[in-house]
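Q: Got a minute? One more chain.
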Amino acid sequence: MIKILIADDHPVVREGLKQILSKAKDMVVGGEALNGQEVLDKVRDEKWDAIILDLNMPGKDGFEVLKEIRREKQKLPILILSIQSEEQIGVRVLRAGASGFLSKESAPKELLNAIRKIHTGGKFVSESLAEKLAIEVEVKTEGEPHKHLSNREYQVLCSIASGKTILEIAKQLSISDKTVRTYRERLIEKMNLKNDVEMTHYAIQHKLIEPLG
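A: Always. Here it is, folded:
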């Protein structure tokens, strides 16, 4: 039996997932988690064969949880389930270590197939997402990384490199500080950088900003 942990803070969603999984004779819902910390606690305390993880969790969000689990249990199959479309975040979650991505809209039709695929060590992605991943790989081999950033990503990059704080950037761009942090994480992943210092060095080296001081 594939023992599954469902991590979602919405009772209706959890019940819906359990109904879908109840149709499979080779799967069992072994537990539920309502927030990020509870997911981590359950992963550390029990053995699981697969996790269904929502991205929008109270406290630590799905990305943080995913990264922490990957540091401790590299091979544990994790299926990201989100209301957001794969065009928005599909590539990001896979690069962060997810075993697959599924939109909540597609769950009724694809959930069982997705669980079986990741449980056997495979990756579950749609054809369109697989094509997007291939394009990402191609883009990485062509040109400078900053030329492939979105306008907002470029703004955040230059602001961080200019020495602005998260709160200052949030105010400047009229977005939340949490959104700025998300952009920062995305930039670090996209550009293969380690921290703000490397980001600043990159921006100066490519003449995106004037040297500080």
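A: The radius of gyration is 19 Å.
Q: Perfect, thanks.
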